[in-house]
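User: tokens in, sequence out, please.
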């Protein structure tokens, strides 16, 4: 069927200019379908592709057997969306449409009869036109990749419902932890599993707070988000302090406000005294995956109890530098595959303090430090215990440095 024949056939139906023009949507540039419809009406069976270069006066809306005149309601829909976005602070949006089932069915009948060549689905045209009006009404710009908010008008089943999907905002920073009684993430009470009992004073938590909780609280307060997710670049044990500025990302879900006062948030976090944050800045949604994969060398200071401190024996600790073999530690065996990993110890220094041996060690990401000291019954080789031929137990541990390529730790 050529263009003229198709026009002549379609003109026998009762169609609005939108639905008529949409059957020729791939023809002509920079014009809306209702203008195409007007062109089709003017030329009828003599219609040719070149006619779509014309720009006749055209108007939107109209009665129609495909769309039931839905294009008369574009402004109503746009205003509905506008009011649903009202309480959010936004810069970008994307609009989606689920058209009434009946419209889709009628459109498909037309396509079956007259072919799909040159056409565009009604859904695309409707969302483009309503989206444009929403943009004009709100001043927001359309963003396809990752809009601040996605609004979907569900027109099915004779109802008009607006569904909103609010994208998270994410912030990157680095933290220090100054407590030996603070887990990184929330830790449910061991008695009640989090439901609340006398043991946990009905908090559901085993410990008073967490790094996560201290950091995310002011973010949630300021953004009025519903909750947050915390992503750390690894974690230290509860009883380990961190002076190494560990990278983290906090992700705020469904925020009402997106422009936050980070200086104020930083002050609130640091006031707690157990956690200090550095270099807070907004980041992108791939950052959590990036910091999970981060392979950074770390520095530690460890205080070690030994049976007998002999300066002469300590010289052999030099031999810790180089490759160590670590079989999965017995304490994590139940949740990690049992295998031997090779890790590199880059630097080791030692001194004595009171009756303790103190070491400063820089090691490759993934090195088990407590086992590097104790040997874990010979599962780590070499080890501090093995080299000085006596029992050695780490009694206190600090993370003192995080060595991220291309990023200063200050
Ligand atoms: Zn129509
Ligand atoms: Zn409890």
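Assistant: Sequence out:
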């Amino acid at each position: 069927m050529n263009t003229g024949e198709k026009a002549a056939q379609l003109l026998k139906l009762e169609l609005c200019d939108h639905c008529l023009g949409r059957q020729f949507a791939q023809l002509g540039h920079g014009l809306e379908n209702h203008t195409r419809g007007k062109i089709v009406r003017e030329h009828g069976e003599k219609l040719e592709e070149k006619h779509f270069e014309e720009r006749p006066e055209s108007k939107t809306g109209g009665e129609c057997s495909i769309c039931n005149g839905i294009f008369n309601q574009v402004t109503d829909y746009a205003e509905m969306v506008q009011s649903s976005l009202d309480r959010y602070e936004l810069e970008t949006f994307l609009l989606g449409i689920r058209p009434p089932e009946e419209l889709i069915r009628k459109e498909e009948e037309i396509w079956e009869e007259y072919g799909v060549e040159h056409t565009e689905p009604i859904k695309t045209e409707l969302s483009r036109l309503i989206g444009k009006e929403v943009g004009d009404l709100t001043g927001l710009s359309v963003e396809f990749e990752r809009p601040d908010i996605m609004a979907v008008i569900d027109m099915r089943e004779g109802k008009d419902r607006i569904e909103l999907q609010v994208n998270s905002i994410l912030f990157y920073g680095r933290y220090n932890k100054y407590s030996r009684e603070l887990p990184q993430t929330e830790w449910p009470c061991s008695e009640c599993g989090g439901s609340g009992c006398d043991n946990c004073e009905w908090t559901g938590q085993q410990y008073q707070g967490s790094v996560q909780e201290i950091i995310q609280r002011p973010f949630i307060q300021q953004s009025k988000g519903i909750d947050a997710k915390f992503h750390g670049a690894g974690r230290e044990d509860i009883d380990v302090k961190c002076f190494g500025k560990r990278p983290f990302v906090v992700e705020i879900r469904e925020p009402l406000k997106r422009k936050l006062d980070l200086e104020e948030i930083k002050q609130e976090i640091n006031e707690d005294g157990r956690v200090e944050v550095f270099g807070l800045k907004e980041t992108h949604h791939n950052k959590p995956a990036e910091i999970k994969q981060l392979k950074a060398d770390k520095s530690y200071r460890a205080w070690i109890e030994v049976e007998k401190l002999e300066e002469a024996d300590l010289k052999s600790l030099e031999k810790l530098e180089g490759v160590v073999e670590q079989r999965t530690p017995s304490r994590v065996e139940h949740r990690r595959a049992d295998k031997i990993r090779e890790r590199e110890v880059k630097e080791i220094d030692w001194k004595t303090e009171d009756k303790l041996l103190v070491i400063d060690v820089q090691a490759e990401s993934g090195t088990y430090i407590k086992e590097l000291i104790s040997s874990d019954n010979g599962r780590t080789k070499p080890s501090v215990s093995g080299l000085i031929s006596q029992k050695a137990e780490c009694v206190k541990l600090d993370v003192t440095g995080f060595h991220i390529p291309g990023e200063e730790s200050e």
